[in-house]
Design brief:
323 residues, five-stranded mixed sheet, alpha/beta, four-stranded mixed sheet, Peroxisomal Thiolase, Chain A, domain 1, binds oxa(dethia)-CoA, 33% helix
């Protein structure tokens, strides 16, 4: 059976950088508080006329170039996003058109908020195993700042915009080894945007569809769920923690990341951290961190990697892969 092996990575951050000092002028907060509680020093914010599909296109072109293929070589496109350009069509279809792919390959979005990228890795893993898929593009892309209330210090300090992408190819060598997904909708009220198309649409029309979160509750659940999922990933594969070279976590909070690294007995030198510069970019954070680790030479061919993410839903998951 073929595995899905990553052959190219790319990422894109919008030009505008918003440092914590700018937030100090907007809400009752401080750079010291934000850095101490989250590790975040700045975030990137998309321009008004820059959409999720734009970010996704930049990241995808970089990943396709790194893979040394043509866009038309792709036979599957999956975009993980919670902030699509439109209600429909999907960002994946818009991206397919932008990339000039008119081969009728399937293209669709996945919505699992901050777990979106690991959910997409699970789906692409199954496509390679069951459908004869040869080359796939998997993207995490968000304009999350569009659903922030810039007067709410509980949330507006945490999130940013960006996109990351990977190209995967069918291979006889190990690529994605296993994926592990979970969700529990019981906790939907702890982290959500409480309006959408079929409910509270008037809030959307007023431009007030904002993220709300009970941060400390979410924090506790994230630490527990991510600790459990790394155990599940190791046990499922009969692996020792020492077999893992890199942790590429969702970038929500440096304290959550450190807790998961500790659970894996990993030093922070084995963790790709971008939360300080990118903040939490939801589905985009894992592929952006992965791209950074690959491009700066830390992640090398043959390395074994755990990706993990946790977010609204709650939805969470992991992917174990060999690069
Ligand atoms: O990616 C999706 C999943 N999301 C997450 O994983 C985020 C999880 N949660 C967190 O990362 C953390 O809970 C936060 C960073 C959001 C908050 O950190 P915390 O250590 O849990 O703080 P807290 O919510 O318990 O608040 C502590 C204090 C409160 O004041 P009092 O009640 O002690 O007087 C808050 O009102 O900090 C106050 N506070 C702030 N102070 C300055 C809350 N936000 C801010 C702020 N600046 N931005």
């Amino acid at each position: 059976m073929k595995t899905a092996r990553i052959i190219g990575t790319g990422s894109y951050l919008p030009e505008r950088v918003m440092p914590n000092s700018e937030l100090e002028t907007m809400v009752d907060t401080s750079d010291e508080w934000i850095v101490a509680r989250t590790g975040i020093k700045q975030r990137h914010v998309a321009a008004r006329d820059e959409f999720t599909s734009d970010l996704a296109e930049h990241a995808s072109r970089r990943a396709i170039q790194a893979a040394g293929i043509q866009p038309t070589d792709l036979d599957l496109i999956i975009v993980a996003t919670t902030t699509p350009d439109l209600v429909f069509p999907s960002v994946a279809c818009l991206l397919q058109n932008r990339l000039g792919i008119h081969t009728a390959c399937p293209a669709f979005d996945i919505q699992a908020v901050c777990a979106g990228f690991v959910y997409a890795m699970d789906v692409v893993h199954r496509f390679f195993q069951t459908s004869g898929c040869r080359r796939a593009l998997v993207v995490g892309a968000e304009t999350f700042t569009r659903i922030l209330d810039w007067t709410d210090r509980n949330t507006c300090i945490l999130f940013g915009d960006g996109a990351g992408a990977v190209v995967l190819e069918a291979s006889d060598e190990p690529g994605i080894i296993s994926t592990h997904l979970h969700a529990d909708g019981k906790y939907h009220e702890l982290l959500n945007v409480s309006s959408g198309v079929s409910s509270n649409y008037s809030q959307v029309l007023r431009g007030e569809a904002y993220t709300q979160m009970q941060g400390s509750e979410v924090f506790k659940w994230a630490v527990k769920a991510l600790g459990d999922i790394v155990d599940e990933t190791m046990e499922h594969n009969g692996m020792q923690k020492s077999d893992i070279d890199w942790l590429v976590p969702h970038q929500a909070n440096i304290r959550i990341i450190a807790a998961t690294a500790k659970k894996l007995n990993m030093s922070m030198d084995q963790v790709i951290v971008t939360v300080d510069r990118h903040s939490n970019t939801s589905a985009a954070s894992i592929p952006m961190a992965f791209d950074e680790g690959v491009r700066d030479g830390r992640i090398k061919r043959g390395d074994t990697i755990v990706m993990e993410g946790f977010g609204g839903g709650f939805a969470w998951g992991s992917a174990l892969l060999r690069y």
